[in-house]
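ingest -> validate -> predict -> emit
validate: passed (alphabet ok, no gaps, 424 aa)
predict: started
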Amino acid sequence: EPGRQSAAKLTTLVLRKFPREILNDLAEYFYLPVAIALANEDSKVTRRLYELSLKSLFSKVDSSRMDNIYSMGWEWIRGDNNQLIYMGGCSLLVLIETGVGPVNKKLTEILKQLISIITQKQDSRSLMKVCVECILKMVRKKGVATLCRGYKTVVTDVAQACVSLINSEEKDTRVVTAKLVGALLSHTKHSPEGGVTLFREHTQLVSCAQSFVDRVNSPDLCEEETAQVVKNLIFLFTCLLREHDLTGLKYLLRQLVKKATLEAVLTPKQVVNRKCTYQLLAATALTMDSEELRENIGKFVKPLFYEVNRREQRGRRVEIVSHKLEEVKALAQQCLDLIKNKVGTEVYNQHLLSLQKRAGEVRTSRRSYRSRLATTDPVRFANMKLRKHTRQSSARKRKIASKSLNRKFKANTRKLAINSRKSL
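emit:
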């Protein structure tokens, strides 16, 4: 990689320092090898250097040469070969970012071709990512209003193409798709009737945004994706409140809270989904009026209260409670303080006391049930205890086995290193 980076730096310096006349005469000869190197490069640093090289080249050549370069990349994109399409997409991304050449005159043609590639070439992950990046760059540089002038259904078509990519196996594709949906959602943000426009004209975009509810509950949700998913859902919830569609909002919040509670019970070490849900609860509580929040306070306070007061199960070691769990508890406590300040101390304390009373009753009933079961049906009680101890012992064995495998791997690696030194 250092050698490739040095070559990319040299190419960038050559294209920056060479006179315009030489670069203008040999533009195609410089463009082709740099575009091939950019498409075949995996390192982000080296790719960025090659992108700077293409920017330097595009900024120095005249319009006729730029037309030739664009037509060359356009032929690659319109072909059937995935590698050539990817190479043309990488070059087109730099062209859009630079803003030179015939790209500004052919926005509709480029958008339609990129959308057709996304819908037809689902098997190529890298191709999906670069096409979505191109559309995202166009939306950010030109704006949705400019794109809609020549392509009326651009929002609907892009949202329909993005639905299948939200749950993609490739992490980078999911992140870029979430950013693209967020950019499309934000184009109604500053209009006075943004929620009305969104729900009446862009129903496909609304359904695409609602699919992020399932994304929050997905086990492969990553930290890079979390922030954008939360932003998209916050905007969707804001539009629901503008439309006074509290039924839809309650349904979505109920889904999120249910999945977050299951995650806390089944996989307490994983906190990404719960962090997403609690951030959404806090943002929705801030957006709602005080009266609406007082009427629906139970849906907000209940999951946060149980998160703050969750007890560790018996037999678990104290080391399991990592800083991430403490961070989630602190986030839940901050959300509770925020709701308390908005609805008032009296209403908040009344609901909190009812929750504490309910939690105490549940614990007491479970304790009494276990004591009754030990007296009335000792065989069933013994089987329950046996299953519990079996689960604990199997978990302990799995942990010991994983540690022993790690020790064996480290020992073998050390032996290989010693043998290689001896052979040298």
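The CA atoms of residues 121 and 343 lie 51 Å apart.
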